[in-house]
Amino acid sequence: VLQPGAIAHVEMGKPTLKVGGNAKGAKRRKNAGVGVDFKRVKAKVGKKLKKAQNETDASFKSATINLPSQTVAQDKDGVAVNNQNLTLHELLVQSGHYSE
Q: Would you say which domain of life the source belongs to (predicted)?
């Protein structure tokens, strides 16, 4: 006959009787500190979510630069150019190796 709040437990073929409490509660008390670092924060209604600690800020800023003296806009009157409108100096710069 079991008493109220008693738990029947069978271990290695021998029936035993525990009185008061449950087996899961004992484990819960023993491991109370496990997982504290990863406790989930519950969301509140109407509140904005906080940013994650490992969130990456991917924003960037840009600015325009004016280069008034580009070779495209230069006058090449009186200078020998090829059919692509490049001078001898510009062609030599293009033909050189990057490591030299």
A: Eukaryota
